[in-house]
Amino acid sequence: MGSAHGDAGSAGVWARTVSVPALDLSHVTLARGGRIVLNDVSFSVPKGSFVGVLGANGAGKTTLFRGLLGLEPARQGVLCVNGAPVKRGNSTVGYMPQMRKLIGGQLSGWSMVAAARRGQHWGLPWCGRKGREAVQAALEAVDALDLARKPVAALSGGQRQRLLLAQTLLDDPTLLLLDEPLASLDPARMRETAVRIHTLARFRNMTVLMSAHDINPLLGLMDHVLYLARGKALLGKVEDVLTTEALTALYGAPVDVVRAGGRVFVVAEGGGAILQPHDCLGGHAHA
Amino acid sequence: MLEYDFMRTAFLAAFLVAVVCGPVGWFLVLRGQTFASHALSHVGFAGATGALLLGFSPLTGLSAGALGAGVLMGLAGDRVAGRDVMIGLVLSVAMGAGALFLHFLTHSASAATALLFGDILGISSSMLGWLAALSGGCLLALGIMARPLLFASLQPELAEAKGVHIAVLDVLFLALVAIATAECAQITGVLLVFTLMVAPAATILRLGLPPLVGLFGAAGLAVMEAWGGLMLSWQTDYPTSFWISVLGGAGFLLAAPVASWVSQRVEAKRLSNAS
After folding, report:
1. What residues does A229 pair with on adjacent strands?
2. Interchain CB distance below 8 Å, A106 and B31
3. Distance (Å) of CA B218 to CA B145, B153, B174
4. In sequence order, what DSSP letters do the residues of A195-260 get, joined into one string?
5. d(CA A50, CA A14)
6. Which of residues 63 through 92 in chain A touch B, CB cutoff 8 A?
7. Are A36 and A60 a contacting pair, CB within 8 Å?
8. B179 near B63, Cβ under 8 Å?
C-alpha cells in the first residue's frame, strides 16, 4: 500500500517514485455529440498525484473522464492508464459520476453501495461473504457505516456523496476520477469533503482527478491543476497554471487571475467570473 | 372451494402470474417506470381484440402487442423529447383500435369485460400451460439479469463505465415487463394491471429491505394478494380483480407504519446492545 509515501505526505514524493505515469494522453481529440470538445491534447499525470480539473461548464471535464473510462472513443491519439490503452470496465479505475436525480432512495445505503460490487456480472444481486467484507471495508474507509443503515432518500447531499465515494473504492482502484464531487454541497462541507478525499488518496496511494467549478476548496491539496478551455488543456503546478499570463494564453483572450483574501478568482476582461467562486464563499474558513 | 376444477386452475394461474409480477414490478417501481406497464397493457388490449377478430387467442395478441410496444419503448429510451405525451398518444390510439376491433366482434360485451377487468375463472388448462411457460421464461431471464439490472437502475453512469450495456438491458427489461403485463392482464384485466404488478412491489419497497429479499418478498406478497383476492371473491361473489385491488391498496397503506415500527425496534435493539 506504500504507507511510507503516505506518511511522508509531501507533494514531492511521487516525483521520485514513478516510472510509468498514471495517465498519459498524446495528441488526443475527443468529441461528444458530434462536437469536438478536446482538440489535440497531450499531458501526463504522474502516479499518486492529486489533480484538480478546472474549467467552465462545457469545457470538457466530463468528456475527458468518459474518454479515460473508455466510454468515448478518441477521434485521434491515444489515452493510456497505467501504461495501457484505456478500456471499458477497467477495475483499476474508480469513477464517481456527477450527482444526479436519486433512484431507489427506498433502499438502504448499504444496498446502494453493494449493488456496485461486481454489479456488472450476470446473476442474482447477492454479495456473498467476500462481497459483504468489501462493502464493509469501503464504507469504513469513508466513515459511513452508520449512514449505510438508513434509506438513501433520508440522507443529505454530502452523506450521499460519501456513499458514492465508498462505491468507487470497492475494486481497490489506483486511479480515481471524481466528477464534480463538491457540487451541490454547502460551502462548509466542500472543504471537508475535499480534505477527506485527499487524505484517502494519500493513504491508499491513489492518483486522483477531481473536477470542480471552483478552485478554492482544493487550494493547498492539489499537486497539479489541469485547466481545460477552448478545446485545449494546460497541466502544471497551481502556481504555474493559475497566472494571468498562462490562462490568457490558454483562453486566447485577456483573463485576469486575482488573489484576494486567500482565495483565487479567474475573471474575464469583459467582467464576470469564469470559474464560480460564489460556490465556495467561506470555504477556506474551514481550512 | 378447491374441490372445483376451475378453482384449482384459478389458484395455479394466480400463482404463476403473481410470482412473476412481484419481482418485475419491484424493478418497475425502483426505476420509476410504472407508467410503462400501464401503457403496455393498453397496447396489449388492442393486440388482444385484434387477435380475437382474427381467430387467435387473446393471450397471443396481448403478448405480441405488449412485447412489440415494449421493445420499441426500450429502443426509444429517454432520448425522445415529450416522451410522456408520445406514450399517452400511442396508448389512446391503441385503446381506440381496441374499441374498433370489439365493434366487429359479435360477442363483444363479454370479451371486452374479460379483457378489461380480467377473467381468472375462465382460464383453460391449455392457457395454464402457456402461463407456466411464460412465467418460467420470465423468471429465468430475470434471474440472469437481476444483478446488472439493479446496478444499471441505481447508477447508470457507473454501471456503463464498469461494462454494463445499459441500452441492451433497457430493452430486455421492457420486453420482460411486456410479457409479465400480458400474463397479469389474464387475471386482473388490462385496466387493473397496476394492482398486481405495482401494488405488492411498492409495498415491499416501502419496507426498505435489501434487494434480494425485496425481490422474493414482492413475489410472495403478490401471490398472497392474488390468492387472497380469489378467496374473498369466492366468499362474497364480488369480482376477483376488485378484491386484489383492495388488498393491494390496503397493503401499501399499512406498509409505512409497519416499516417505521420495525426500524424503531431495530434501532432500539442496536442501542441497547451498544450500551
Report:
1. A232
2. no
3. 17, 18, 18
4. HHHHHHHHHHT-EEEEEES-SGGGTTT-SEEEEEETTEEEEE-HHHHSSHHHHHHHHTS-EEEEEE
5. 10
6. 69-71, 88-89, 91
7. no
8. yes
Side chain identity at residue A277, one-letter code = P
Taking contacts as CB-CB distances below 8 angstroms, the residues of chain A near B145 are: 122
DSSP code at position B56: S
User: What amino acid occupies position A55?
Assistant: G
* Burial status of residue B74 (CB atoms within 10 A of its CB: 0-12, 13-18, 19 or more): buried
* Residues B173, B145: Cα–Cα separation, whole Å: 9
Q: How many angstroms separate the CA of residue B160 from the nearest CA in chain A?
A: 8
Instruction: Report the 10 Å Cβ neighbour count for B24.
Output: 29
Report the DSSP pairing between strands A255-260 and A232-236: unpaired
Interchain contact, A95 vs B145, CB within 8 Å: no
Taking an 8 Å cut-off on Cβ atoms, the answer to whether A120 and B205 are in contact is no
Q: How many CB atoms lie within 10 A of CB B1?
A: 13
- CA distances to A37, A231, A277 from A228, in Å: 10, 7, 17
Q: Which residues in chain B are closer than 8 Å to A100, comparing Cβ atoms?
A: 157
DSSP string, A37-56: EEEEEEEEE-TT-EEEEE--
Domain map (residue ranges) of chain B: 5-196
Residues sharing a CB contact under 8 Å with residue A249, sequence separation 6 or more, in sequence order: none
| Higher per-residue confidence, A262 vs B243 | B243
User: Domains in chain A and their CATH numbers?
Assistant: 3-92+173-286 (3.40.50.300)
**Each residue's pLDDT tens digit, B197-231:** 999 999 999 988 899 999 999 999 999 999 999 99
**pLDDT at residue B38 in the model:** 84
Q: In CATH, what is the architecture of B5-196?
A: Orthogonal Bundle (1.10)
Q: Cell match 392457457: residue? A: B127
- At B88-145, the pLDDT tens digits run 888 888 889 988 988 888 766 777 888 888 888 888 888 899 999 999 999 999 999 9
What does the radius of gyration of chain A's CA atoms come to, in whole angstroms? 19
Residues A286, A262: Cα–Cα separation, whole Å = 12
| pLDDT at residue B39, as a whole number | 86
Q: Whole-prediction pTM value?
A: 0.87
Amino acid symbol at B7: M
Element (H, E) at A93: strand A93-96
Handedness of CA A118, A119, A122, A126 (dihedral sign): positive
Contact A119 B161 (CB under 8 A): no
**Beta-sheet pairing, A93-96 with A175-178:** parallel
